[in-house]
Amino acid sequence: MDLTLKNIFQTYEDKMILDDVSIKVMGKSGIALIGPSGAGKSTLLRLLSGIEDPISGEICLNHHEVTHENKHEYFKKVGFVFQAHNLFPHLTILRNITLVLEKVHGIEIKKANKIALDLLEQFELIEHKDKIPAKISGGQAQRASIIRSLAINPEVVFLDEPTSALDPILSHEVLKTILKLREKKMNFMIVTHEIGFAKKAADYVIFMENGKIVEHGEVDILDNPKTESLKKFIDNVSYDI
Ligand SMILES: Nc1ncnc2c1ncn2[C@@H]1O[C@H](COP(=O)(O)OP(=O)(O)OP(=O)(O)O)[C@@H](O)[C@H]1O
Ligand SMILES: [Mg+2]
User: Fold this and answer.
1) Is the minimum distance from the CB of 17 to ligand 1 under 6 angstroms?
2) Other CB atoms closer than 10 Å to residue 108's CB: what's the count?
3) Which domains does the chain have, with CATH numbers?
4) Is 12 touching ligand 1 by the criterion CB < 6 Å?
């Protein structure tokens, strides 16, 4: 994917959240967005996915300028996965996936079913297709959310700490699913605290602190950080308990 941000500013209640963020990343497929709590990572992801508008600045993803006006079209081209799954609780896993295809993308139900069943098969959730979210594990539900975001064949999937609500074992299965995205050369951008995972899954890393991008580059910056801030951050999140 190609990503260009020009002079992005965002504030909430007079507090500067993103402070003149600019970056150009070309031809990468997996981008990891890392940084301490409150750095502005989720805010940046929401802007990139069109969920929220910046107060000023330009956002361009592939050939799409992300603006308030063209949001409706843009939403059809990107997927978003949140910290906790947001499947519809009263619908089966299969229907959770087909509903969006049918209602938002106007795909007829027969084709929607085929797309959903293919994905459920590929991502090893087919046996749970007729269950409602409450009857599967948190990890499986999060994987179903990821599959749902893939069903529209998006240009990019945005994932905001998709494992933070899960225990380590369930996290592991979700992270494996995301590694599969990588194998399939899907474009994604993920906010994560898991440095080891970022090294495996991403081909580019953006490190933020206090509303600014402090360092960015190929994943090897995680082994050889140039800035003191990134070095400190890695030391802090990599400790063993
Ligand atoms: N809707 C909002 N209204 C007011 N302040 C907000 C809002 N969303 C975020 N903030 C503030 O913006 C700052 C950046 O938040 P953001 O959620 O983007 O950080 P983050 O890097 O994702 O942190 P974390 O790792 O804890 O998820 C924080 O100080 C937060 O309190
Ligand atoms: Mg966040």
Assistant:
1) yes
2) 9
3) 3-237 (3.40.50.300)
4) yes
